[in-house]
Amino acid sequence: MSTVSVVAPASGLKSRAAKTPDTTVTDPALVKRAVKAAALGNAMEWFDFGVYSYIAVTLGKVFFPSGNPTAQLLSTFGAFAAAFLVRPLGGMVFGPLGDRVGRQKVLALTMIMMAAGTFAIGLIPSYATIGVGAPVLLLVARLVQGFSTGGEYAGASTFIAEYAPDKRRGFLGSWLEFGTLAGYIGGAGLVTLMTALLSADDLTSWGWRVPFLIAGPMGIIGLYLRLRLEETPAFAAEVEKAETDRPKVPLREMITGQWRALLLCVGLVLVFNVTDYMLLSYMPSYLTGQLHYDETHGLLVVLGVMTLMMIVQPFAGALTDRIGRRPVIATGCAGFLLLSAPALLLIREGSLLAVALGMGALGLLLVCFTAAMPSALPALFPTKVRYGSLSIGFNVSVSLFGGTTPLVVTALIGATGNMMMPAYYMMAAAVVGGFAVWRMAESAGRPLPGSAPSVAGREPSVAG
Question: Is 219:148 a contact under the CB 8 Å cutoff?
């Protein structure tokens, strides 16, 4: 079956999809390429976060010398959290820009900035070499990362959602978080390998730099893939409808005109990211720093949990297409409310089997969010403001609640001495998420707001 190009005359944007007045027929090859490029960018972002989380103790020694290990860890997670404070600013810049000039161009730009920020961390001299300038430069690099990430997730999920056929949006969107897990496993696996192979002195003096320097080549590959993409059919159609070359939507309309959807977005992202950062970013440090668990074994357990999540992820995404996003997200919220405390008690028991069971249970519950959110969140907003409104809502929630999770929970444990604080924090997030999913509309199998129905085209035959 040959494809039909549709060109938006006013803009020069094109989308290789066959269109009728009422339906868009997607090009399967182009959809696959779009999913791969979006997922790779997400993988690079979370490769950095995985490395930063799993090597946090070493980074504390390099950049924040102190006789108190808890103070070092708090300082390191403070720099980690600082990047999230500028994410809403990045979202307010890149989101509206994505609705104005196109998703593809902005995603290429965020890829460049993310790679540059991560690569720069690997070049920063230690505190012992340049003194206070070292943590300052680390903070600057983290701010660059945070600013660029403000446009990454919302853009990538929007890109996949606008390419995907309505009946396969959950399955295709789930590959975005598959990239997240792949990035985490890559980052954590590399740290685990280096921890096993290098002495503590070598890891502190030079070994910690290697994972960050790898971001350079990864960024070049990701940029190449994203530059080869075409604009989404939904955005190209929106440009065609506009009177000028590009749609113009004031920032105020993206907020006040979408206030209900934004509140739902904040609630859904809150439960998604608090549990995500708790399990994948904080728990490795909790196992080693608070429970004094063997560092290598703790990392291997988390790697095993993430591998399990990767295996289940596409199947859970396909399930959201069959039974809906709401039932899957609601199951995750109920599970975290009821099982967070028992799972943490298992983890605190300390044996390898108990830790694996507790972490595995939390990981499978987290899949309810990672599989459903990439398709559910873009469906909250119409095409003309989707990138901008989703960027704002997503990043405000992540900045206030998700990225601060390691810092807040570490501080709460230090202040109260209560080692069950991680469970209580996840339970509170589950209540908020449960209310949001109760108020959201089901979007599975339905067109995105403001877009025509989208169906899957057939793969070309051998005869062509």
Answer: no
